[in-house]
Write a structure and sequence with these properties.
The chain is α/β, with parallel strands linked by helices. Helix content is about 30%, strand content about 25%. The longest helix is centred in the last third of the chain and has 15 residues. It is globular, with a radius of gyration of 14 Å. This is Flavodoxin. Belongs to the flavodoxin family.
């Protein structure tokens, strides 16, 4: 596996925990797991693979730390890099904006020359709408670790198995 980092935005700790769990399953050292509010373009340029995760707030916005993180993404050279996305959401309380924050990350990287991997079928999810669905699939791994925590491990395992060959 090429050099990989995981960058997350987390207010309550859920997305941070999920980032750590994904890192463990991929064998990514904890020193390569970063908070989105503290990353720089130079740091990102040092990795071939970027796994980016955000929780979703309000009407589908990404977590606040990502507003600085997106600046770093836009300044980084993502040409030829592999990017995978994951998002946290509340499929019951915010069913109409489920994991919408992931769509903002997707928009930030999609035209930067990166190879985006890890789209996930919407089958088995319960929600009304999501901006993170493109061509009938989530742009990355959608997780609801509050209402569907019994599905989280299986979803992470299936996603990691799918993206690992590309990393």
């Amino acid at each position: 596996m090429n050099s990989t980092c995981i960058v997350y935005g987390s207010s309550t700790g859920t997305c941070q925990d999920l980032a750590s769990r994904i890192a463990t399953k991929l064998g990514v050292d904890s020193s390569n797991v970063f908070d989105a509010g503290s990353i720089s373009a130079e740091q990102l340029n040092g990795f071939q693979n970027l796994i980016l995760g955000t929780s979703t707030w309000g009407a589908g916005e990404m977590q606040d730390d990502w507003y600085e993180g997106v600046k770093a993404l836009k300044a980084a050279d993502l040409t030829g890099k592999t990017v995978a996305l994951f998002g946290c959401g509340d499929s019951e309380g915010y069913s109409d904006t489920f994991c919408g924050g992931m769509a903002e990350l997707y928009q930030a990287v999609k035209d930067k020359g990166a190879n985006i991997v890890g789209a996930v079928a919407t089958d088995g999810y319960t929600y009304d709408d999501s901006e993170a669905v493109v061509d009938g699939k989530f742009v990355g791994l959608a997780l609801d670790d509050v209402n569907e925590d019994d599905k989280t491990d299986a979803r992470i395992d299936a996603w990691v198995a799918e993206i690992q060959p590309a990393l």
